[in-house]
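User: Hey, quick favor. My workstation is busy. Could you predict this chain's structure for me?
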Amino acid sequence: MSRNASTNWFFAIVSGENAELARVEIETLLQMVDSKYEISWHERVAIIEGLQDPTDFLLQRAALLKEAGKIVFETDSLEGAALEIPDELLKSSVGNNETFCIRSISFLPGKKAETRENLVNELGDKIQRTTGAKVHLENPDIRVLVLAMSDRALICTSKESQLRGQLRGRRPGKKPFFHPSMMNALLARTMCNLARVMPNETVLDPFCGGGGILCEIAFIGAKPIGLELNWRFLKGASMNLAGIQNSDYSLIQGDARNLPIKSCDHVVTDPPYGRASSTRGEKAVRLVEALLENAEETILPGGSMCTCHNSEMGVPDVIRQLGFEIEYQIRFRVHSGLVREVITINL
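Assistant: No problem, here it is.
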């Protein structure tokens, strides 16, 4: 990794639920901050070069991010790495009135636990001697992270994601209204990110069900509009949205084939595959086709659509037949009999 003195280096570690989806989420969010970021992937670690620090935005938004921060120092070996770090670099990273802790994560194929432990101890001693900072394992001001990788070792300052815990607390079973078909908050937030939803934008879910996606739209600070045929689901969506502070939402009982919405910035949706009560017997792919046929009239220029659906529906073929270009198409297995895919298109 060559260093450019005019830029800074950052990292992001994603979770292992779906590596491809996690990578696309991080890359999309980085584009929303600055299109000039350079990014390379090493296992589940993104190494990011850029002028602006994107880590706070990533931690606030990314569902599949575990932690992120700034790369302070890079070396090609764990052995003696603590001695290589300039004192001034440590002083600029950890203040003398601050507390710190050190962790290490290994992406090495072999076991190097003893080497990593030695580095953590040596680095901790050097930080204390150089800066006067004190160790605090439970609630430190600065979290130092050593990343041991196949071709390098990175010493970083890191922040762990608080959002992931919040999203788990917002899973369908925790909501006032629950239905088994509701999308979990992790995937709903990821889809909003792939659609590039920003605060104050208007986002439509034309198959909103109990409001799983609508809730994440609202938590981002955007304005959700939910359309649903089933009155019971619509009442449930209202219950779920009502508890979100300062949420500005609209719910409409209606048919996605005849949208009562004049315009929106984005569409984020989970079509009701296999739920005849929600489609009045209509095949779900036909509903998606009708939605796409009206996309250019419904979604404002520069907007986007993100859908998640059963891979057997043939949605990519419909998208291409209607002349749209797919930006992302990511498949993931839910269980042995069900493969879903997330697709995004830009208008």
